[in-house]
Amino acid sequence: MLQGIYAISDEILTPYQEIFAMLQKAIEGGISIFQFRDKSHQDNQIESLVAELMDYCEQEQILFVLNDRIELAMKLQTKGLHIGKKQEVHPYSLEELYMIRKSYGGILGISCYGDLQLAQNAKEIGADYIAFGSCFASPTKTQAKVISLDLFQKIQGIKKCAIGGINQQNIHQLQNVDMVACISSIWKGDIIKNIDNLKRNWKNL
């Protein structure tokens, strides 16, 4: 389950009135995982949408992941939860990660940016996967620091996801990861064709 093309929603690129139609095309294209990310609404404003997306992904047999909203993920019992930094500067402490892992029974992924120690902490508390990024200059997070791709070689024994600036031209550089997470390179233009090209250029899937 934790392998392949990992699509992440975007409030601008996947507007909510179109998100189901766009997600359907992404599934037809061959994504394995869909993460819903919303940075501007309260939990109660998006709860019904999250529940519908979760059910739809389950019907289509792809993994649904909710970004950052720990309480909502536990309330709806989403299959997956992905957490990033609680603030732009300070990552979650090891103790906080332990508590999240203890509370959450589904698949847990943790953004580690370029922080190998945070990745080791995530592995220690039993996270299911870690994400390193930005792997390349990102059009959606222009301030994100670009990491060394060597980081993926420095941690073993946990599933690894690459994120940030990944497109059809550079995805071939990510042979040592299990998942590649994409936003604009999926949703801009022909979704099915975009995903097909990503898969072919990555591992000729």
Automatic annotation (TrEMBL):
GO terms for biological process: thiamine biosynthetic process. GO terms for cellular component: cytoplasm. Keywords: Thiamine biosynthesis. Pfam families: TMP-TENI. InterPro entries: Aldolase_TIM, ThiamineP_synth_sf, ThiamineP_synth_TenI. It comes from the Bacteria. The keyword Transmembrane does not apply. This is Thiamine monophosphate synthase. The keyword Coiled coil does not apply. GO terms for molecular function: thiamine-phosphate diphosphorylase activity.
